[in-house]
Design goal:
By secondary structure, the protein is mostly beta strands.
Length: 851
Amino acid sequence: MIFRSPYSVSVLFFVLCLTRFATSSATGQSPPVINVLFPAGGKAGQAVVVTASGSNLQGLQKLHSNIPGFQCERLDGGRFRLTIPEGVMPGLYDLWGQSDNGLSAPRTFAISNRTEHQETEPNDSASAAISIPIDAVINGRIDKVSDVDFFQFSARQGHRVVVECWAERIDSRLRAVLEVFDLAGRRLAVNRGYFGIDPLIDFRVPADGGYIIKVQDLISAGSAEHYYRLDIDTGPRVAFSLPNVVERGQTSRVVLFGWNLSKSGNLAAGTAKHTDDNAVHFDQIEVEIPAALARESWPLPVKLLPPQAVLAGASFPYFLRGSHAPVPIGVTDVPVVADHRDNHSPSSAQRIDVPCEVSGQLATADERDWFTIQARRGEVFQLEAFGQRIQSPVDLQVRVLDAAGERELARFSDEVRNSSGPFPTAHLDPAGRWVCPADGRYLLTISSLIGGSKTDLRRTYRLSIHREEPDFELIALPRRDNLSALNIPRGGREAIDLLALRRRGLQGAIRVFAKDLPAGIECPDVWLGPGVDRATVIVSAQRDAAPFGELKLDGVAADVPELDGKSSPIVTADIIPKVAAPSAADIRRPVLGGTIVRTGTPNGWGRITSQMPLAVAGDSPLRITADAHEMLDHHLYGKLQVRHSPGSFLDVAVHVEWQDAGRQEAVRCIGVGLPELVQNQTTKIPPGQQKGYVSFYLPPALPVGRYSLVIHGETSLLAQGKKPETVVVYSNPVTFDVHPAAFLVEVDPFTEKRVKRGDVIKVTYSSKRLNGFIGKMHTELAVPGRVTEVSGFLGRGETFVGQSETGALQIIINGDAPLGRQSDLRLLTVGVLEEKPVFFGSSSLPLEVVE
């Protein structure tokens, strides 16, 4: 049996492409785009002058950052003086640019505790190599095609010099290659990728003297966006830890692996030793993690890719004194187990109790770790492995076998689906669900499919074994433009895409809500219905809102009791029942920010951001408001509040309000953030009209639950002396409940479709009763917002009593019937319970009126 990962993410490419790659905006103004911020880092306790380059940078006023105590002074020519406080933890932080037109997307800014220098040209040959000191950071650029940078340093025999290039991790396009030569030109070391694609060389100095470092791009590319930071370091540097996860709030001991760790001054906290084999050379030092430190911390001063969202709210940075950067360590609420060194066969399998987190290592070639658990028939287990997501060079495989290790019961696959083109969430870590078939003992084994022939201590893993305890992560991305932040027009609205990564079997609804909103900013709740993985959040700004702020969102798994499908389908008094505030027992997670790092990459390039800043800039020429709960006038039952269920239409009324009342253009509308099962629809509100409808059919297979959607509107405006410009706006979110259906209405598929004015046709249909409903049903001809009195058509309604389920309506095509396909025409059935109209169902009647 092959199990798919529990990370389930739908790909809604049509709607995504509709706006994510559009260049228009609600304000007609383009936000700033910072392509390069150089240098891309500075030293804690000092000031550094950086230059921002990109597009739409006129009026760039300020740089914002999540660096604690950060100060920014605007100079000239796109230059800014940044002051970094003493004591800031080294690592990676975010910088945003703010102009009159809003905020840019963030750029990564590195903070070090080493001396900082900048590359000077010319240095494109070994003879022109720049002399640089040890224990320093060089900020450089491969700024043209085939460019090469050379540096020279001096060191003494036996010194361990770590040469590391930071490029991809700081948003650079550089695919760096590092080489070390002696002064005679002999190449002594080369590396093309150590931390991902960023290279590192662990150089043992063979003799006193000078050495040359060469930096180039793998394919000889070059531009201003091919910048880098080059560390030449003899100080302590931590690569990883074992265990890589500790129990929350408990004192623990972990072993750090790295280089020059004996220089850290932390020997009093543990012991240090050196490992030396034919593949990897690491120092080790054991340190104590205090209970107060073993708690999640956010933001982390490290780079996190989209698949690493699960680590964002369950890790903390451990900083070894004197080292160059912190190492993230995970936290968990369950016991942490270290794998034994002799558990490499079924007969020596290590016994573990569930739930737990196993932290282990697959250092040698083709190594497999075996574990054994006791399980009872029907028990459900969720297994999830972490390898690639903790920066380990492995492609893990997890299997469940019988007690003898002869019969495979389950094998878990990687998450290879990409949820959002330019923001890739795919990874090579397996996960899945296993149901125990019988009481007894079972074996679990974990291995790497790319073990290789050499020993590598970096091949660590984390294996999470839980019972079925649902969980999720949420990521928010600005929808409008890949390279901007959240920019809201004054008096208008802006949209952000919401991506849910469901874990451990979570299928229910998720409610997302704002907290601590800045004054003048509004953000209504939105719902991701059962199994839904994408939604759209709307943020609006009043005209007096401050120009800068921060958006904070939380998500909580919260099904609506009235909609669980287990109770009677009788409607409650409220169309949208109220939901209690989240309790401590609810699954609650913060929404993480996300950004597109660079466009034009074949597999997408995104990362997690430290926060979600927002800017209020410009004005919106129009505003659209959506309403899916309009009262419906019925000639038999008076004013009706429609109750939605599978097999019915959701009619969304769209109201258009122009800022300039004299301007009346056509507005095209389409839904965004729809459940995957709901087919998208469009409508066009003609010039001069202020209202239209977008109608969505809720298919019979749609799960009962609460959902939200948004209407995307766009229009073309002709500015004086300019070409027509497409303006995009968004409605308020529309939240609606889908109740259990009482019946399913279906028009006979053989009904005549092409009709002429003056024709009289007979439309046969069925209303199949469901969920024990036996009440009266009345069917009429309808269009969005209107029943019976449909312009151009005349139909007489019909009532079912008893067990009747089939009938026919006679419809007259009037002489003024509009020509063409009648996409909104339908049969509407109202179900009556205790003489009250309670249930609704619809079926499309796709007539085409011809001459």
